[in-house]
């Protein structure tokens, strides 16, 4: 029987990106740690959520009773949606995370104990913004109740485990000379 506590890892792609850009990271992370991939994540054959789930059953971490990993490769900001700005992308990502937490609680009958966010390029800025929104909503353990008057309907009060960014322009980008 799988552990009833989940470490949810959310991965977000960069500018003009799609989940295909971060799919290898998603599957590698799940396989290496004996985790599963969220069923809402689309994978390219030969990988599938079922092949990764079979791998997870035989992984040494399958014997752990305390926590198991679920990886969500978010697609809510695919393609041109990244032009909407970091704030809009972050808000959409937060809704996606909340949907996934609700799915884990209802379908898997588990609670989310830890949340990690991973962003590639612009996705790093998006996950950083989303972390702030989730904190302001009172999503994380030890946090205050939502400052915006929002009452979250989750049993889970996860710990913010990690925020990792890859090739993210946290300080912005320099302006290049124009040829026009």
From TrEMBL:
It holds the Pfam family DUF676. InterPro entries: AB_hydrolase_fold, DUF676_lipase-like, Lipase-like. Residues 5-175 form the DUF676 domain. It comes from the Eukaryota. Belongs to the putative lipase ROG1 family. This is DUF676 domain-containing protein. It comes from Sporisorium scitamineum. The lineage of its organism: Eukaryota, Fungi, Dikarya, Basidiomycota, Ustilaginomycotina.
